[in-house]
Amino acid sequence: MFVVATVAYPWLLELLCVGAGLLVDRLSGRFVPAVLLPVLGAAALIALSQLSTYTSATAPLTPIVIVAVGAGGLALEWRRIKRAVLRPSSRGWQLWLPAVVYCVALAPVLAFGAVSFSAYNVLTDSAVHMMGADYLIRHGQEFAHLDLANSYGRYVVGYYGSGYPSGADTLFGASAFVLGVPLIWAFQPFNAFALALAVGPAWLLVRRAGLSGAWAALAGVVVTVPALVYAYELIASVKEVTGLALLLSLGALVVMHERWLAGPPRRVLPFALIAAGGISVLGVGFGAWILACVLPLVAVASRQVAARREPVRRLLLLVLTGLCVAAVAAWPTWSHAAASLRGAQSIASTSSPGNLTAPLQLIQVFGTWLSGLYTASPQGVGEVLSYAAIAVTALLVAVGVTHLWRHRQPVLGAWVAALIVLLAVVLIDATSWIDAKTLMLSSPIVLLLAWSGIAAILRAGNRPVAVVFALVLFGGVTASDVMQYAATDLAPPARYAELASLDSRFAGRGPTLFTDWDEYALYELRDLDIGGPNFLNPPPALAHVAAAHSAPVDLGRITPRKLLAYPLIITRVDPVASRPPAAYRLLWQGDYYEVWGRRPHASAPLAHLGLYDNARAGCTRVARIAATAAAHHGHLVVAVAPQIVNVDLHNPFPAGAYTGGQLELTAESGGVSSAFRVPRSGAWDLWLRGEIMPAVTVVLDGRAVVTLSDQLAGNDYNPDTIGPLHLRLRAGRHELTFIPSGSALAPGSAGEASLGRAFLTPPSGGRQEVLRTLAANAWRSLCGGHYDWIEADR
Q1: Are residues 243 and 198 in the same domain?
Q2: Model's pTM, two decimal places?
């Protein structure tokens, strides 16, 4: 699957996009440069996928439609392809630049050597895109049948039923369906491919700025992957990454206006399709960027009309043709324009910072940011070097602006100026969320100006100075991206493979209650109609259960009567997590999850006493529930908790070892040790709770037991439960040591490695809680004991 997802899938996408681009270019009069064909084809396929998923009847045909169009374009233009292959131009090697950017963008997954996606759970919007892409290809924009009493239906309707832009999702879903690649593993390759699409137009723009040959190739790559853009690609912000390629392509067509603006009306087709693609991908808000691209064209056309070189009638016909094409190509978005506009206004006015702990800084637009997180400021030497590189970049930008003015690149200069003005307007009156997106889309434009400054220095004959400055630009961006690569957390493939198996095994048997905080389960368990009380969109009946979004869910705090609405309950394998009520039995257990099924004809208990975290049962509360059982001639059912031996992780450790209650394991601090005692000799299971991305070796009494890595669950509220590690111990004292041991070159080597809890239980081979049944009048034997819960049953 790894090779299919990371190699075969992007090659298929490339062929489909090139084929569609060739077809559009043929219809337009064959004037589009080869490096723009993949972006043009992507825009065309976005339009087709949007139209085919507009109705549920045609949605499943979307993969067939995009293959037919892509293959048709390749077949019709086969002679042109053959000539390009047999007689490559002197610049043919630059067509491989997208492959370079793709490998840079996907570097964490490629180095990981297994299917995954990067910056795990930094921004869980990617879970929505996976779920939405799957739903739209299977059902189209038909939402009436969805169950709005559970999270899955509420997410789909809340996003895609309210004008949420889905252009990138429909292309992503349709292309992945062609090869049968699970969307969860195709998502990061798709984002890397979308970013690689941007290098073609970036290369054309730096050539117009005055660079050529290897200089243009290097500049094209650097312009495409500045720190902020790379950060957005790592967190799989698919809309912004895809929108960037479309924006740069519009800019390339603007500066190439002489090829099409004075031609027949059909030549507006590429510009109109790419503009429509941007509307479909980013919503009506992309209209501001389109306006910034149209204004220079209006100025050019006005001069041509004033000089009587162009008839007004022909220009009006060209404009009318472009508007018609854009209206049809982005029709699903236009038809929900009111809802899309409300969504854009909501985002623009929201006080929620999303994953931003603080607004991004304006200087991040200069491309260098020597911090592992784009949301955190550089520290120490990194801060000094960042500001130095930013200062050099700002100087080059000033030189570049002068260069464009002096060497008569008015259209390129006007386009860049319009985008900078747009950036300034947005920063004056917008939320931090919108500011961040705008800074990201503007960063390549700023770096384009900086490389224009390099072109000015080369033109002046100062090649050594140009080399030094180019090294600063290249080194700053590269070092920034490497630091983000090292800090990237990757999704654990084994756990998601287990979830996928559950979806196949229990499909159609929902609705299902899901107690783990993991919004990617919305895609993996899409056929189980799942509801998560701690999701952003919880089931209304259970919205009060979790203390907050992403907070832990304790089944002991949910009224059993409400639980009976769910035939299935899926919980994590965790010996101290609350067991479902007696009405449920264990159907299946894996390495990570347990599936509980409601017993046939099960009814709610007479009373239920939940004891959070196996608390001690007070006699007063036990007597009360026993009285209820006796009054109905019933009995008591008790979920007996396992014996727990806690490992004290709060011994005195080096300063700074604790952050937010978690023991941080870093290479600088070395190994940390803690002692514990077991009451008897024999077999024990060791369980760890934490987030471990880089490798950590677990050492028991001086002997290495196991090396753990890639064990993540998502956040500090719901740390991953790792285990069990099977041990044989003698009674008495033992010492447990955790030693960071990962390679500095591994993805996530600077990622999270923390522990919040370590404990041991007797081995069980399965669910550790045992149910006991006893007569109501025997309730005194329960006083003071530690239990999961106590029920009064008939």
Answers
A1: yes
A2: 0.92
